[in-house]
Amino acid sequence: MSTPQPLDGRVAIVTGASRGIGAATARALHRAGAAVVLAARDTEALTALAAEIDAAGGRALAVPTDVTDPTAVQHLVATTVDRFGRLDAAVNNAAGGGHPPTPLADVDITAFDSALAVNLRGVFLAMKYEIPAMLAGGGGAIVNMSSTAGLQAVGGLAGYVSSKFGLIGLTRTAALDYADAGIRVNALAPGPIHTEQLEAAGEQARQAAAQAMPMRRIGLPDEVAAAVVWLCSDESSFITGATLPIDGGKLAGAPPFRRPATAAQPRTNPTAT
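The structure assignment produced for this chain is given below.
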């Protein structure tokens, strides 16, 4: 007899599932026993991931979705319920838009708006349609993907920082609105994670990011995915409205001062002439 898994029989949506943290999360939810509905704009990547999960004995459905489009998000949730009969968990991970590091006064207005459209309004739209489906099934769990930049600002990233700070406020509001209805809403705040974006930045950038962390390494998508599974499971049943950093200690504060390792120096004799 197979060992029961924490999400056996449950159905989960993952937005931004085509790569990186989203794809790792979809695989982790599958391993935990859930049927997984994959949403992103990259149809080819979604289809390949769904086939991978199906081949591993899971249940997956690819639904190409633009999270900035209310009709598309509504269709995503309706398709999930039509196919699997319910919705128990949702991981709102889609991100995009924004601008490269730029002083605020030089930020293009359209670029700023694009960050809010995907990272904040897209999560609002997702929850707007996910929550009624969860209420119909008696409850559920939602995990919204923020960032350490949603707890500690980063210069030059006005659009990204604003959207991720706002996402934490939106998460807390939803948690309060539905705490007595059986729906838990939490957020994760990853620090530097080894995804395609950091891979493309090159080894030097990865090493610099690692050395800036108290743990002296960057995180892995699977480490974020493991936290998602826990927040979607009954093991976190008394947690809602929380933001969990996954950052190798980045937000804990400054690491202890350490002198650089040097060869031992001979003692000097203060009385010598």
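Interim note for the steering committee: Helices lie at 20-31, 43-55, 70-84, 109-136, 158-178, 196-201, 203-211, 221-232. The chain has one domain: 11-248.
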